[in-house]
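In the design runs reported in the main text, the only information available to the sequence generator was the tokenized backbone. The following block is the verbatim input for one such run; it is reproduced so that readers can re-run the procedure and compare outputs position by position.
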């Protein structure tokens, strides 16, 4: 009977739901005013047909070409850019995240580094690539630098959450037992953060792998530039080869990264 009474006495928030619905409806209507639909262009349908044709008829010679212009080399370069960008970004994010955590440093210092992280996250990766390409020149190195900077923004935000959720009771007990700062970091902090840090890094690598393809469009190395050139010249069999390699690569990385993250989170694979 108490359960029924509790249910009947639940907070009546129908007006809140109606208000949220009205706000969303207004936003949708307001957003739709800025979109003009003119139908599917003839060239657009040709491109769509060409991509489908390329996926079903890939250029096998290009797919197994071992030269620097082949799919295997460009795919490996894309993976290498994602790996290096993720590693450098994850390493640089560690000191930044500690300096941005309010339970580690004073609030004014944490505010400065949080503002820095927000600045990095605000600028899209393509804009970062266009900035750094003027410094490093086109090529894979530009992609690595761009992904390292972009990774700091996202990884640091996740690291901060893990750092601020630390069990300080363990550190206090170690401090009471006379442990040094290094011992507290090695035995009290790192065991709590390692699983979360590794899981976040793997997740960011997943994102960087897909971003590396996009960065290639502006000349930051990888398979993206060759893919865009093939689409522009309407060489659909070559497009199919590049897309096929990307699809297989993403599926493989997604499978293994999901398994690793599940093992880190729950101590077992799904």
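Verbatim output:
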């Amino acid at each position: 009977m108490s359960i029924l009474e509790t249910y009947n006495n639940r907070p009546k928030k129908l007006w809140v739901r109606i208000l949220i619905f009205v706000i969303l409806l207004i936003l949708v209507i307001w957003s739709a005013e800025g979109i003009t639909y003119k139908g599917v262009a003839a060239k657009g349908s040709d491109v769509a047909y060409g991509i489908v044709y390329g996926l079903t008829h890939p250029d096998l010679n290009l797919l197994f070409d071992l030269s620097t212009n082949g799919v295997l080399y460009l795919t490996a370069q894309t993976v290498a850019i994602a790996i290096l960008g993720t590693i450098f970004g994850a390493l640089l994010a560690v000191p930044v995240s500690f300096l941005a955590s309010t339970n580690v440093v004073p609030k004014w210092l944490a505010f400065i580094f949080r503002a820095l992280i927000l600045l990095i996250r605000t600028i899209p990766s393509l804009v970062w690539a266009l900035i750094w390409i003027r410094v490093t020149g086109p090529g894979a190195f530009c992609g690595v630098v761009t992904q390292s900077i972009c990774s700091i923004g996202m990884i640091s935000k996740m690291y901060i959450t893990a750092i601020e959720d630390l069990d300080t009771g363990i550190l206090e007990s170690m401090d009471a037992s006379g442990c040094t700062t290094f011992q507290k970091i090695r035995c009290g902090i790192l065991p709590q953060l390692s699983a979360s840090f590794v899981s976040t890094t793997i997740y960011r690598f997943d994102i960087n792998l897909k971003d590396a393809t996009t960065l290639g469009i502006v000349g930051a190395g990888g398979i993206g530039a060759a893919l865009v050139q093939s689409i522009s010249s309407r060489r659909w069999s070559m497009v199919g080869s590049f897309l096929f390699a990307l699809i297989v690569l993403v599926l493989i990385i997604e499978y293994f990264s999901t398994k690793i993250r599940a093992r880190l989170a729950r101590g077992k694979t799904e």
